[in-house]
């Protein structure tokens, strides 16, 4: 029983580091980033329906849906607008 408790404690302690892991999208300062409005327009042109748009670390990040209606979490390079990482359900 003590082993199960120890294993659960170790797993729980690792959660914050896992949850906070986001990609590194750029090393450029925010003054070089495209504006949020320009990025939102680019995201829309890619067919995403955005529910949440935010800055996460060195990335623009969205939560929303693809043009096919699948849930999406996507990280973008804020300078180029390129997709750095995406997680699409379905």
UniProtKB/TrEMBL annotation:
Keywords: Signal
Signal peptide feature range: 1-21
A Pfam family that the UniProt record links to this protein: PepSY_2
Cross-referenced InterPro entries: PepSY
PepSY domain sequence ranges: 6-87
Highest taxon listed in the record's lineage: Bacteria
Keyword Signal attached: yes
Stated name of the protein: PepSY domain-containing protein
Organism: Pseudoxanthobacter soli DSM 19599
Taxonomic placement: Bacteria, Pseudomonadati, Pseudomonadota, Alphaproteobacteria, Hyphomicrobiales
């Amino acid at each position: 029983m003590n082993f199960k408790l120890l294993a659960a404690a170790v797993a729980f302690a690792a959660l914050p580091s896992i949850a906070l892991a986001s990609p590194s999208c750029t090393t450029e300062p925010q003054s070089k980033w495209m504006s949020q409005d320009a990025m939102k327009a680019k995201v829309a042109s890619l067919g995403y329906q955005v529910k949440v748009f935010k800055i996460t670390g060195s990335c623009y990040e969205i939560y929303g849906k693809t043009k096919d209606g699948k849930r999406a979490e996507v990280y973008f390079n804020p300078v180029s607008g390129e997709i750095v990482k995406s997680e699409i359900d379905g």
